[in-house]
Each structure stands twice: as C-alpha cells, then as structure tokens.
Amino acid sequence: MNEKQISSWVRDWLVLSASVMIATWALGIPGNLATLLLVAAAISLLNSILRPVLLLISLPFLIATMGLGMIFVLWLINSFVFYVAWNVISPANVTFAAAMLGALFISGAQFCLNLLFGIPHKKISISGGNTPPPQPRPRSRHREDDNDAIDI
User: CB neighbours of 113 closer than 8 A, spacing ≥ 6?
Assistant: First the structure.
C-alpha cells in the first residue's frame, strides 16, 4: 500500500467516525469517544467483509426489481452492519429500528461531510492489466479478394 491509499483510508475512516458521532448524538445513544471510534472501525471492517456477501445474497431481489430495490437493500445492509457493530462493541444495546435510523443519519452525514471537505465520489473500475483495448481495423471499400464472384 502506498501513502496515498493509506491517507485516503484514514480520511474515510475519520469521516465515518464523525458520521457515527453525529448519528449517535442525534439518536441519543450513549457512548464515549473510544467506543465511537471502535464502532466506526468495526463498521469499516464489516463493510469490507460482510457487505459483498449480503449484496450477493440480495442479488435475486435486485434482479426481480430490476435494480429499483437497490436503495432499500443498501439501507437494510447499512442498518444491519451498524446494528452488529454497535451491539458487539458497546454495552448499550441498540434496537434494529434505531440502527435503521442511525444508518440514515450516517449516510446523510457522510454525504454532507464529503461535500464539505471536497472528497470525490468513489468510482469502481475494473481493468485486466495495462494493455490498451484493441483498436478496430480500418476497413477499405475494395479489397483484393472481392474480385471473386459467385453466380447462382
């Protein structure tokens, strides 16, 4: 990992930590700074491990709704991750309904903080290597082997 990747990871974690603080303050969930930072770290870890599995499980629903259920699925996944992270780290139990509201607050706070600090949206790109895409061959109007004619 290079320095740029590490600094962007730390920046994203700090934004997530601030978002978790805003959400817990808005919902009145008790917690100190260390707990909130640990919850943010747990959310980051669960997002990297558990989120792809949950998205794969929800794939039939997404196909059935032709992608229109994506916002609902992502909201439920974020709620589940917040619920699990908070209940594992903190002794204060959070209900799933509070986790659903917390996920909305976290998403909104992350969006606002990213806009405030000018953090660009994450773009996912998949490439197979450093080879450029193949270029189409130029087509000529008349080729040498077009002289053959088939009469029927």
Answer: 15, 18, 19, 119
pTM over 0.90: no
Could you report the per-residue pLDDT of 94-107, keeping only the tens digit for each?
889 998 998 999 98
The set of residues, in sequence order, having a beta carbon less than 8 Å from that of 94 and lying 6+ positions away, is: 29, 82, 83, 86, 87, 102
Using one digit for the tens of pLDDT, what is the confidence trace for 21-60?
Answer: 988 888 888 878 888 888 888 988 888 888 888 888 888 8
CA distance 31 to 25: 9
3-state helix, strand, coil in the chain (%, to 5): 65, 0, 35
The domain limits of the chain are: 3-121
Q: Write the CB contacts of 13 (distance below 8 Å, at least 6 apart in sequence).
A: 40, 41, 44
Spatial distance between the Cα atoms of 29 and 103, rounded to a whole number of angstroms: 13
What is the spatial distance between Cα 30 and Cα 27, in angstroms, rounded to a whole number?
9
Say which residue the tokens 């953090």 belong to.
119
More confidently predicted of 148 and 75: 75
